[in-house]
């Protein structure tokens, strides 16, 4: 190979690397502009959204802080696994925030779901 051919190959490789570098920078810029809701939607599973929404309603400042912290850790790649509702609930508990969730006890009887109140009323009349 002559020097001219080697120089042409080097120029081609340099141009290719510059194109890849520019592409990565654009992806990083796009990553910074991503919708936080969409990013969290990929990682929050189960009842995690219910826990986060309850925390937003009860403790808006703390929930906003936790949400931004989760987003930052996800974007940095430190969180790679899914976050369940239980995990998020215990995170709030560890921070000293007791998030109250709407809960109900229901009983499956003869193919019908009944609340515990309905079940007790039925037993009182029987």
List keywords for this structure.
126 residues, mainly alpha, Helicase, Ruva Protein, domain 3, 2 domains, two-stranded antiparallel sheet, 2 strands, 68% helix, 6% strand, elongated
Please tell me about this protein's structure.
The protein is mainly alpha-helical and 126 residues long. The chain folds into 2 domains: 1-33; 35-125, Orthogonal Bundle (Helicase, Ruva Protein, domain 3). Helices cover 68% and strands 6% of the residues. It has 6 helices and 2 strands. The chain has helices at residues 3-32, 36-43, 48-58, 60-76, 85-94, 116-125, and strands at 106-109, 112-115. Strands 1-2 form a two-stranded antiparallel ribbon.
Strand count, sense and closure of the main sheet?
Answer: 2 strands, antiparallel
Separate helix tally:
6
CATH class of the largest domain: Mainly Alpha
| Class of secondary structure makeup | mainly alpha
**What characteristic shape results from the CA principal axes?**
elongated
The second-level CATH architecture of the largest domain is Orthogonal Bundle
Total beta strands: 2
Low-confidence stretches: none
What CATH calls the topology of the largest domain is Helicase, Ruva Protein, domain 3
Tell me the domain tally: 2
Portion of residues in beta strands equals 5-15%
Indicate the percent of residues in helices.
55-70%
Radius of gyration: 26 Å
Kindly report the average pLDDT value: 88
Strand order of the largest sheet: 1-2
Order of helix and strand elements from N to C terminus: HHHHHEEH
Termini separation (Å)? 99 Å
């Amino acid at each position: 190979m002559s020097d001219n051919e080697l120089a042409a190959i080097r120029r081609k490789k340099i141009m290719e690397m510059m194109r890849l570098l520019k592409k990565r920078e654009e992806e990083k810029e796009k990553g910074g502009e991503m919708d936080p809701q969409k990013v969290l939607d990929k990682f929050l599973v189960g009842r995690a959204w219910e826990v986060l929404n309850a925390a937003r309603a009860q403790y808006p400042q703390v929930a906003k802080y936790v949400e931004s912290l989760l987003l930052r850790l996800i974007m940095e790649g430190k969180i790679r696994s899914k976050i369940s509702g239980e995990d998020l609930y215990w995170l709030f508990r560890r921070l000293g925030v007791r998030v109250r969730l709407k809960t109900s006890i229901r009983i499956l009887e003869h193919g019908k779901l009944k609340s515990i109140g309905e079940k007790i009323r039925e037993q009182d009349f029987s």
